Amino acid sequence: MNNQQQTLWDFMREQSDKLATQTLEHIGLTFISLFLAVLVGLPLGILISRKRKLSSPVLGVAGILQTIPSIALLGFMIPLLGIGPKPAIVALLLYALLPIIRNTYTGITGVDSAVKEAATAMGMSTWQILFKVELPLAMPVILAGIRTATVITVGVATLASYIAAGGLGEFIFGGISLNNTNMILAGAIPAALLAIIFDFLLSRVQKLNTKKIKIAAKVLPLLFLVMALVYFIPRAYGSKLIAGFTPEFMGRQDGNLGLQSKYGLRIHTVVISDAVMYKAAYEKQLDVISGYSTDGRLKAYNLVVLNDDKGIFPPYYAAPIVRDDALKQFPELEKTLNLLSGKINDTVMTELNYRTDYLHESPERVAKDFLVSNNLWKPERGGSAGTVRIGSKIFGEQYILANMYTMLIKGYTDYDVSTKTGLGGTKICFDALTNNQIDLYPEYTGTGLLVILQASPKTVDSLQGNKDRVYNYVKTEFENKYQIKWLQPIGFNNAYALMMRQKQAKDLNVKSISDLKNYLERK
Amino acid sequence: MIKVEHLSKHFGRVKAVDDISLSVNEHENLILLGTSGCGKTTTLKMLNRLIEPTHGKIFINNKNILEQQPEILRRGIGYVLQNNGLFPHYTVAENIAVVPQLLKWDAKRIQHRVSELLEKLHLSKDHLKAYPNELSGGQQQRVGLARALVADPPVLLMDEPFGALDNITKTKIHTEFKALDELKRKTIIMVTHDVQEAFELGDRICLMDKGKIVQTGTPSELLFKPVNKFVKDFLNEQRLQLEFKAIKPPPPPEGGAFELHGVIIPGDVSLWWILEQFKFSENESISILDHQHKKVGALGFEELMSAFYQYKQQHSHE
Fold it and tell me: Does residue B251 lie in a domain region?
């Protein structure tokens, strides 16, 4: 435990620059959005307290906005506002609206009618009643709404990192992808602290007496604005091109860290979710992105992979991995699975992925079409000599492969098949395999090397990114450590890659990562 | 002073106030009396346009108030609410100063006027910085009264002003209310459902039912010359007490007064009031003073009672 804390502390100290930047971005995003939300929500709340007929449609719409999943809302924003802080701020603003509108409405309508009648009877105008009586009396309730909105916004702002708006989400989602607890905590703890601190401070404001609350109502908007400005401090250096990398890529040795140390690549980088990255590149919001070399969107968005001339991305050749005892139990299995070996190269896999990910065809149909056109498909035998359990991770390519293996086993052997697709990430899939929940799943050599075996940098260097050496290394190690066998590779290499728009790459004459670096350093 | 002509207020198909006319003289205290839903409060609220009439005209000082700007009109009319309606976020001083602030008085004038009223209403200066919720019900009601009086409006509208008070506090405030010189200069219209209160405070009483006026008159007119069975029945339950409140003792000489235990009592108090001071001891008597406050005679229990019977007989036989 102590050791764990120590390393978390070390991580935070080591990354203190990034931590400070992300925290400031997070605070800034939160308060810009809150400031705008109050600017919109307060008048709306006042309006619907005057015209009660409007209250249910307005509160209804704000309520519906609240129920849209945050990632989906961010997704809707991209076609309208692109990526970066703008769509993030608008999305956060929309989330903060409901509590502010509703509490303003409740606060004002909750003012004792005798007090309002007295104010009218004293000869106050409607505006005087609003500013001298209704708003001051509703203030504690309105502040409670702002408080709720603040906590929501601090939480949702972690998602801003999906669309290149920064914030503590960069650590959190990077940490989740990299299975790095310290990184997750380095993002999650400050985010939680921010929520607690802001909540506490606003609760103190809420409890102030009438005199001081008047002052607070004047000071708070200013304070919000100042906090909002914080967002613009960290924007430091720019470059000719903008790169968008996933949080995972940012933290990996065979990712951004390698790009910096081995290539010396310095490019203005924003962190962005894999889900919107390709589209953002296509729409010229980004110039360089990190992606997977067989991703279907490569084809869909006319992107080109830059040659990794210094070999920092280890090979990720796909092959089925099977428990040894399953191979003994099902003697026909190895032969059948190897039917696919060498049959699918990068281009073919990209094409297949394009059909599932972009054209939304079912993985089953894509798998069958491929097998049929390669004369591999046979009708089901309907055998009952035991059931083979196939697993897959939770993305299209793995679904296609799992389907192909299912069809092959059913067509060529007397075994039945059950599939457990969508087993989250590597860790879940691998644990299912070692714990005898599944018999096999498709894995990648690079993942086996770096994520499962967690090979030391020295070992990784000694393999020199050589396809066969990596395959042989993981094959031997898996056999020794886990009694799991790597069958023959399927043929394609789904490795990390840097990509650019075809046209831009051609215009700038950039073919490799070194070309890119040289282009950036040219004045 | 105040003239109401053919005034009606309809809420949808309900006629809350149905074609009423009445007039109030300057410095008179008119009570709108009736059960819940009789239209008395609606009538009152039309006088400062908290409710806009459906039909009819209202004149205050011969000016048609429906042609005036409502905010300006209201700043010239004092208004006291049943649950006082004090602003909970204002101190006592700020509450009282609302109308002067709206009228843009200078700070010194406001301060002077506020402390003057505080003294007249028997509120301590320590209360100035207190918030309404720190005061008792009776104190709150006094602050509400001070707020209505502060700009010295000629007209005062009171909507069940003492309705939320317990009986003991109510009696005490009634006494103060009658003694307050500020109020003697006002034309007051007060709404109440409390018959005793109406008889105690009203110069004239306007009894309403179902949106219409049933009878308007002095307390003794209502008691001894009811226009119909409704008026009679309305007052019947507490008749004896009401009679004592409606009938006054034989008046002292011109400009004179009464005196009891060294306290000077105005000459126009009710029999009830004097009998209450006697606390049922028959040996008590009240001194009659002339205009120079010299004792010229005395009234004992017996004399008061015979005055009561005489008055009653006279009026019942008319």
Answer: no
Residue A137 counted as domain residue: yes
Distance from CA of B98 to the nearest CA of A (A): 7
Q: Is A441 exposed, middle or buried (0-12, 13-18, 19+ CB in 10 A)?
A: buried
Structural domain that includes position B301 = 257-317
Cβ-contact B33, B205 below 8 angstroms: yes
For residues B154 and B294, membership in a common domain is answered with no
Domains in chain B, number: 2
A121 and A203 both lie in a single domain: yes
Supply the ipTM of this predicted assembly. 0.85
- The shortest CB-CB distance from B99 to any of A115, A117, A122 is to A122
Which chain B residue has its CA at the smallest distance from A138's CA? B89
Give residue-wise pLDDT tens across range A294-310: 888 888 889 999 988 88
CATH number of the domain to which A301 belongs? 3.40.190.120
- Measured over the CA atoms of residue A502, residue A507, residue A512 and residue A516, the dihedral's sign is negative
Helix, coil or strand: residue B9? strand
Under a CB-based contact definition with an 8 Å cutoff, are residues B135 and B98 in contact? Answer: no
Q: By the CB < 8 Å criterion, does A137 face chain B? A: yes
Could you tell me the residue range of the domain that residue A207 belongs to? 2-232
Report how far apart, in Å, the C-alpha atoms of A285 and of each of A84, A131, A276, B193 are.
9, 45, 11, 75
Q: What is the pLDDT of residues A306-335, one digit of tens each?
A: 988 888 888 889 999 999 999 999 999 999
Do B162 and B268 reside in the same domain of the chain? no
- Cα–Cα distance between A154 and A196 in angstroms, integer? 10
Residues of B with CB under 8 A from a CB of A: 48, 50, 71-77, 79, 81-90, 98-99, 102, 131, 147, 157
- On whether both A219 and A291 belong to a single domain, the answer is no
Residue, of A224 and A442, whose pLDDT is higher: A442
State pTM to two decimals: 0.73
pLDDT-derived band at A12, boundaries 50, 70, 90: confident
Q: Are B85 and A115 within 8 A, CB to CB?
A: yes
Q: What is the pLDDT of residues A180-212, one digit of tens each?
A: 788 889 999 999 999 999 999 988 888 877 777
Q: Which two tokens stand for residue B170?
A: 């109510």
More confident residue, B204 or A238: B204
Is A49 in contact with A105 (CB distance < 8 Å)?
yes
- Token digits for B313? 């007989």
Q: Looking at the partner chain, which of B50, B71, B88 has a beta carbon nearest the beta carbon of A117?
A: B50
Q: What is the pLDDT of residue A236?
A: 44
Nearest to A318 by CA among A512, A470, A481: A470
Q: Per the domain annotation, does B245 fall within a domain? A: no
In whole angstroms, what is the distance from residue B69 CA to residue B312 CA? 49
Same domain for B148 and B117: yes
